[in-house]
Amino acid sequence: MNSIFTLRPPQSWMAKFRADGVWRDETPIHDLARWRVERPDGLALIARQFRTVPALG
User: Which of 11, 30, 46, 51 is most deeply buried (CB count within 10 A of its CB)?
Assistant: First the structure.
């Protein structure tokens, strides 16, 4: 039984999403690591806007 505060979907949904190709086990971090090996001289991320945020402390 899931609480209304549970953020994780039921296992049955997760299995369906993975079977349908909507979800995968890899994350964007895995993608970046793979791209680093596949294209070491390529760009990984391009920021369209640069903002500085003052440090707290």
Answer: 30
Tens place of pLDDT for every residue, the chain, 57 residues? 566 676 888 899 989 999 998 888 888 889 888 988 998 888 777 777 767 666 665
Kindly state the DSSP code that residue 41 receives in the 8-state scheme. Answer: T
21: left (phi over 0), alpha (psi -120 to 50) or beta: left
8 contacts 17 by C-beta, under 8 angstroms? no
Cα(12)–Cα(4) distance, integer angstroms: 17
Query: pTM of the prediction?
Result: 0.48
Q: Distance between CA atoms of 10 and 2, rounded to whole angstroms? A: 8
Question: Which residues, 6+ apart, have CB-to-CB distance to 45 below 8 Å?
Answer: 32
